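Here is one chain, start to finish.
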Amino acid sequence: MAIATQHSRELDARPPGPRFGSIAIATDRTKAFRQAVRHSGRVRIFKVLLPILAVATCGLYVVPSKWKFEVAGNEVVLDAVDVTSGDLKMTNPRIKGQNKTQGKYDVRAVSATQTIADPDTLNLNDIDADVINASGETTKLKAPGGIYRSKLEEMIFNQGVVIERSSGLTARLKSASAFFAKNLVISKEPVEILLRESVIRANALDLYTDRSSAVFTGNVSVHLVREASADATPAAPQPVATGATASYQLDPKKPIDITSNSLEVDDVKKLAIFRESVNAVQGDFNMKSNELQVSYAASDTAKGAVAAPGAADIKYVEARGEVVVTSKDNQTARSDKALYDSATQTMTLFDNVTVAQEKNIIQSDSAIINAATGKTFFQMKLDKRLKAVFTPKGAADPATPVKVAAKPEPVKPEAGAPGDLFASADAKKPINIEARSLEVDDKKQLAFFRENVSATQGDFNIRSKELEVAYASAGGAKTAGATQSSGDIKTITARGKVLVVSKEQNASSDKAVFDMKSQTVTLTENVIVTQGKNIIKGDRLVIDVTTGKST
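Its structure:
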């Protein structure tokens, strides 16, 4: 009995609760695990807080020695800590970390506060931060204050921030969020980027510190100023373009203003891409397009920076989509694509090219305008032919697109004698020209139409292998040298199997000269005139195109 009683007492002395069976044991273990988790959490918090609270309990409100500990994998260093009303006030806090691309960041502040209820958030004052990418390039961020979220490795600059690069780039942002682990700074308020004399403005900015690139969005405005290196060897002077081609040349000494809906700058590739409603202006030169790519060569001082392309030499400018280039004297060029090479001073237009000045129009598949040589080349693909129209002053607008008048068929032989029966041409009607290619030499003021050329004015038509147009630039430069009004055209010279066709007569020769001032066509070399069955051969024939008389 005594043994039984003792055993009963031992059983009664056990803690209350289930005592036997697998279910009871599992229940005890679950409770124990939960208690352990809560205990571990308290331990992590108190590892930091208990020493501080212990000092505060002893009546010491400031910890005089440096504190160094780790929060969310980041090193935190403090000079001193105050405890006031449940908040921690830190002196000279410093946060160091490393991102996934092996870059580093170092955030310093004069002071910071942290609530015990939210240990993952620091409110910093007088911030000075460095973000160093894997290549050793540094981005500095300075702000009067900000909020650091340790778990996200995010710094919220809600009082403005200034970002500086050693290259001279300066960004002034009203607000921004810096994600140190992602090498990304985002601002959704209007921004201003300064690179010495060049300025970029936009409604928002994404700045990537690891690869020196940035994306600007919303009302992008860029003022580009070319900067020459102070110790650079002076370049040999480039030929000065004159006449029409000068209108399609960018002046390296003048600033360029570009607006668009967005801009992406990749300083590694040295490429700036403007997108949507792009408009570039330099003096009288204006280019509009859906997209504009600017390739530039950065100067030594701009190494590693998100540089405005104007801070260095522009190499290429490529426009895509509904390209419209306008310049002085009402000159306009349209195409699907345009490429400007600053080294050769060449503007190349591709696909659906239309060059116009007032009522004068040239249509082709491509056009190469060389400002250095003063020459322009218009070409067509395969067996297609370009079309041009020159309209006299005071004449009605030509149809657009250019419609070349039907070529009169050679007359059938009829009985009768040859006479002065060439059809008269109306001097006020447009001159329509078709050819395989066109070369314009603006310095010599000559235009050469080549391969299966046909020129028509009213019922008067000239066909030849080559057609040379000599013009005078009245009152300044003209569009690509080729779209002069017929009032400025001096002569039209046809060479190689020349055929002059009118309603009544045909005349062939090796050469024909159309004098615009006298309104006469002079045929020389192997001249043959045909009217019906009558044929006349000679060395020279002069036709008055206003009266139709020939001599």
